[in-house]
């Protein structure tokens, strides 16, 4: 069931059932395909079912799963078109989707988030899973658009500081965000350099210089 999915954005496994796993697919790089999105297996990956499809130019680049209520999932979609002579990274179908029923149905989260975006990274706090962070790349560029935080399971989002992050390029390649597993105020952003916040995204410091941290 995964023969034609192309590049993989993320693989996550249910912490309470090792046979349940999800794959975020970005599709084959140089063509539009109908194989992009989220796939789910309930038999340890022997067979896969389509869970989320947006369109043939939009795949899933990142995912997060609630550590206790594992039927709650988040998927970051990315509208990406690449050809030999051009690339178009971002658009209105880039966004964050949430499922509360194990991927049966999905709802786009929009309250406080941009209506169009490039690559998006998402992370959930293991110690306080009501808290999520997302990093957004500008549409059509490799620079950051914003960092966003939710404290209510993704219902609403607040934009945080990007001071110290705004002049760093290549977020469309490395754009990931991570939350410390024991402290929801400690957050890491990966790009051409690695950055850290100890106050919930209100300020950032560089902890690795000129390191490709993918």
Describe what you observe in this structure.
Helices cover 2% and strands 42% of the residues. The protein has 214 residues and is mostly beta strands. The strands form four sheets. Strands 5, 6, 7, 8 and 9 form a five-stranded antiparallel sheet that branches. It has a four-stranded antiparallel sheet with strand order 1-2-3-4, with no helix packed on it. Strands 10-11-12-13 form a four-stranded antiparallel sheet, with no helix packed on it. Strand 11 and strand 12 form a beta hairpin. It starts with 6 loop residues before the first strand and ends in a 6-residue tail after the last strand.
As residue ranges, the low-confidence spans are none
Beta-strand percent range? 35-45%
Total count of helical runs of at least 4 residues: 1
Average pLDDT, to the nearest integer? 95
Round the Cα radius of gyration to an integer and report it.
16 Å
Helix/strand-derived category reads mainly beta
Report how far apart the termini are. Answer: 27 Å
Shape: globular
The count of β-strands is 17
The residue fraction in helices comes out at under 10%
> What order do the SSEs take from the amino end to the carboxyl end, as H and E?
EEEEEEEEEEEEEHEEEE
What about the largest sheet? 5 strands, antiparallel
């Amino acid at each position: 069931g995964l023969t034609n999915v192309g590049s993989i954005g993320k693989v996550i496994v249910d912490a309470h059932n090792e046979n349940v796993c999800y794959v975020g697919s970005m599709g084959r790089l140089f063509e539009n395909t109908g194989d992009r999105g989220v796939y789910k297996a309930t038999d340890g990956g022997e067979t896969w079912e389509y869970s989320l499809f947006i369109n043939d130019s939009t795949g899933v680049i990142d995912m997060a799963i609630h550590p206790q209520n594992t039927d709650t999932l988040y998927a970051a979609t990315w509208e990406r078109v690449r050809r030999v002579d051009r690339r178009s990274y971002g658009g209105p179908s880039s966004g964050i989707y949430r499922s509360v029923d194990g991927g049966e149905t999905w709802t786009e989260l929009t309250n406080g988030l941009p209506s169009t975006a490039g690559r998006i990274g998402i992370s959930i706090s293991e110690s306080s899973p009501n808290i999520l962070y997302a990093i957004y790349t500008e549409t059509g560029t490799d620079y950051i658009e914003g960092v966003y935080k939710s404290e209510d399971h993704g219902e609403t989002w607040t934009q945080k500081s990007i001071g110290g992050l705004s002049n760093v390029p290549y977020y469309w390649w490395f754009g990931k965000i991570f939350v410390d597993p024991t402290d929801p105020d400690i957050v890491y952003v990966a790009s051409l350099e690695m950055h850290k916040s100890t106050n919930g995204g209100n300020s950032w410091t560089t902890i690795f210089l000129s390191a490709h941290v993918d």
